[in-house]
Write a structure and sequence with these properties.
The protein is of the alpha/beta class. The chain has two domains: 164 residues, 3-Layer(aba) Sandwich (Leucine Aminopeptidase, subunit E, domain 1); 303 residues, Zn peptidases (Aminopeptidase, 3-Layer(aba) Sandwich), CATH 3.40.630.10. It has 15 helices and 20 strands. Strands 7, 8, 9, 10, 11, 14, 15, 16 and 18 form a nine-stranded mixed sheet that branches. Strands 1-6-5-2-4-3 form a six-stranded mixed sheet, with helices on one face. Helix 11 packs parallel to helix 14. The longest helix is centred in the middle third of the chain and has 26 residues. The chain is elongated. The two termini are 38 Å apart. The model has no long low-confidence stretch (mean pLDDT 98). The chain binds ligand BES, manganese (II) ion and zinc ion. The site of manganese (II) ion (MN) has 4 residues, from loops. Ligand BES binds next to loops.
Length: 496
């Protein structure tokens, strides 16, 4: 998508449509008057029939509007003025992004009449790009062709002084949305096209394109690191594991890095503790933590965020086979703690345990792990938000502020001694399953055993990584959730 920017006269622009962002109204105020007049009172008439009153996502198309060279004017409702925020714009452009009035033309103007907030400009392009996403990789013939012909959007305002702010915000929004689309694409790609080896190759391809450091540990190197928990998960698959290490220095050379860790299970059958077949295919998305971490890291590089950042992605396939680990097996983790594998379907925490311990190598100032870790999230916040856990209040607060700024909602859960108790094994140091009670928290309590002396945040994106039906700017399928959250956290990072 080509973005252009202009302040002032849009009447003569040779485009297919001018998109007017309009907040909810019950009479034609002085802001709508000129447009109403040069459209033969079209807006007055729409209001009379209540066809268009500016509710969020409402769309009305006006043709033959005298004052514009554009073929048509699209009225796009953003909702009630008093509850207006960035997500109002994300939702509105998300809905418009699939509307034929827009997708059938090549060039459009997004006209922000009376709106000055940078977060609105950013959200408008995010909503458009996220809403119009279609995963066509595996379609063929005519179905493979995009039906969206829009190639160029001109962002327009009246006030010249705001032009710079507009350009900065929209450009940033485009980069962030592209990052989220990357995360979605990685998650949507089926496991036979996205193995741990493919994941590592993808990371190296991105490293080449965006010029960052990326190393891969192969199976012998992982064994040399004594990552016994990771190997325990991986050993049932014919696909060898990989451990991805990306590094970016956007901050002063001597500043400790922020380490991001992402669960990269490219397919989770459950292993010998096999999952039921209903919806098992969704488990191609069990690498979404890793996908989001790789995307956020890449986006941080593209935005030149002034921090030192490390991304660690342990990636494996969890399969049953003659080589697979069996319930009751004990693994020796990299840290030396022994783990009784009572349920081979609790595999994510095993690979994260070794990755958390590996993070010590970087002397991190803070560590954030992101994982589709527990099905129990469904019974906590449902699809509405992300449970987080951690050992540092400031870090949780920063993350919550990022959630407010990106509309990727989070809520902190505690980890108490009762939960830690659930994760003790009678024959090893730890068990990998504490049973059903507080399943999301006990997974966090397990991970806590492997952290070093640093602030740590655990982000469980299970279920919210997939949208079951489709929302304004989140089409059905993998959501890429966590991507905007991580990038915003890194952008506004303050030492904790
Ligand atoms: N990948 C799953 C969690 C998951 C479930 C993600 C549904 C997305 C949607 C994870 O590896 C898992 O199987 N967790 C088990 C742990 C249990 C055996 C202790 C779970 O949550 O049931
Ligand atoms: Mn599992
Ligand atoms: Zn899993």
């Amino acid at each position: 998508m080509d973005l252009k920017f202009t302040a002032g006269n849009i009447n003569e622009l040779p485009v297919g449509a001018i998109v007017y962002f309009i907040s909810e109204f019950d009479k034609i105020g002085k802001d709508l008057k000129p447009l109403d007049e040069c459209s033969g009172n079209a807006i007055t008439n729409l209001l009379k029939t209540t066809e268009f009153t500016g509710k969020n996502g409402e769309i009305a198309v006006l043709r033959n509007v005298d004052c514009f060279k554009a073929m048509k004017v699209i009225l796009l409702g953003v909702g009630a003025k008093k509850s207006l925020n960035h997500d109002s714009f994300r939702k509105a452009t998300g809905i418009l992004s699939r509307h034929k009035s827009l997708t059938s033309i090549g060039k459009a103007v997004f006209y922000f009449d009376g709106f000055e907030d940078a977060s609105f400009f950013q959200a408008a392009i995010e909503g458009y790009l996220l809403g119009s996403f279609k995963f066509l990789e595996f379609k063929t013939g005519n179905d493979k062709k995009s039906k969206n012909f829009l190639k160029e959007i001109t962002f327009a305002i009246d006030n010249k002084k705001l032009l710079n702010r507009l350009e900065k915000a929209a450009t940033q929004g485009q980069i962030i949305a592209e990052g989220q689309l990357l995360a979605r694409t990685l998650g949507m790609t089926p496991s036979n096209y996205f193995t741990p080896t493919d994941f590592a190759n993808k990371a190296q391809e991105l490293a080449k394109t965006y010029k960052f450091k990326c190393r891969i540990l192969d199976e012998p190197a992982i064994k040399k690191e004594k990552m016994g928990a990771l190997i325990g998960v991986s050993q049932g698959s014919v696909e060898p594991p990989r451990f991805i290490i990306c590094e970016y220095k956007g901050g002063p050379a001597n500043r400790a890095p922020i380490v991001l860790i992402g669960k990269g299970v490219t397919f989770d059958t459950g292993g010998i503790s096999l999952k039921p077949s209903l919806n098992m295919g969704d488990m191609k998305g069990d690498m979404c933590g890793g996908g989001v971490v790789l995307s956020a890291f890449t986006t941080a590089v593209r935005l030149k965020i002034p921090q030192n950042i490390v991304a660690l992605i342990p990636t494996v396939e969890n399969m049953p086979s003659g080589h697979a680990t069996k319930p009751g097996d004990i693994h020796v983790s990299r840290k030396g703690l022994t783990i009784e594998n009572v349920n081979t379907d609790a595999e994510g925490r095993l690979i994260l345990a070794d990755a958390l311990d590996y993070a010590n190598k970087f002397n991190p100032q803070a560590v954030i792990d992101v994982a589709t870790l527990t099905g129990a999230t469904l019974f906590i916040l449902g699809y509405a938000g992300i449970p987080i856990m951690g050992n540092n209040q400031k870090m949780k607060d920063q993350f919550s502020a990022a959630a407010d700024a990106t509309a990727e909602k989070v809520w902190a859960l505690p980890i108490w001694d009762e939960h830690r108790e659930q994760m003790k094994s009678s024959i090893a140091d730890l068990t990998n399953s504490g049973g059903r009670p507080a399943g999301t928290i006990t997974a966090g309590a397990f991970l806590e055993n492997f952290i070093g002396d640093w602030p740590w945040l655990h982000v469980d994106i299970a279920y919210v990584d997939q949208e079951p039906s489709g929302k304004a700017y989140v089409p059905k399928g993998i959501t890429g959730i966590g991507m905007r959250l991580l990038v915003n956290t890194l952008q506004n990072w303050k030492k904790v």
